[in-house]
């Protein structure tokens, strides 16, 4: 496991990080690379995932998480830098409120937003924590979450496992009055350079204005914005 700090749990956690950084790995591979018992390796990997140091993809394998990137950039989040360039343009194209969400455990957090200058808006302040059980942004993040997270969310969710399959198939999600009465939204996944879904970009507004099928109207623009974000990442 390399050098020892004399703090056993820290050394083991660093060993798990190094193992996942070398190549994405499942639990069996993690145990083989670190020499740790399954229960210990799993506990450490899940704990590191909670803090964003590891991320478990839909294939069930752990890989380096977004917090490592943030720390490596000395507190400058490349996703936020990309959002600052892309979200205002999406707002101008749609004329509606635009948000960027990142999953944090069983919640999604608005990490960036762009609001139109006037008119009725769906304002979601940066830092707002919303449940992962309703809304198009939640559907997108849940659709590409690991199976364990999906199983934990679905019993309380307004959507079904079949709905998440449909989201993955078409590449975007929509919702009408799921999170809030009178509000509709459409969202698309944002991927990093490795193709891992790291966020959801959304357009939202009053149902009376954007209609009950917002995906028909805005999905193409959302997908283009998601591609622009990935390109900048």
TrEMBL record:
Coiled coil: none annotated. Residues 67-233 form the IclR-ED domain. SMART domains: HTH_ICLR. The keyword Transcription regulation applies. InterPro entries: GAF-like_dom_sf, HTH_MetabolicPath_Reg, Tscrpt_reg_IclR_C, Tscrpt_reg_IclR_N, WH-like_DNA-bd_sf, WH_DNA-bd_sf. Residues 7-66 form the HTH iclR-type domain. Pfam families: HTH_IclR, IclR_C. SUPFAM superfamilies: GAF domain-like, Winged helix' DNA-binding domain. Keywords: DNA-binding, Transcription, Transcription regulation. PANTHER family: HELIX-TURN-HELIX TRANSCRIPTIONAL REGULATOR, ICLR FAMILY, TRANSCRIPTIONAL REGULATORY PROTEIN. This is IclR family transcriptional regulator. It comes from Pseudonocardia charpentierae. The lineage of its organism: Bacteria, Bacillati, Actinomycetota, Actinomycetes, Pseudonocardiales.
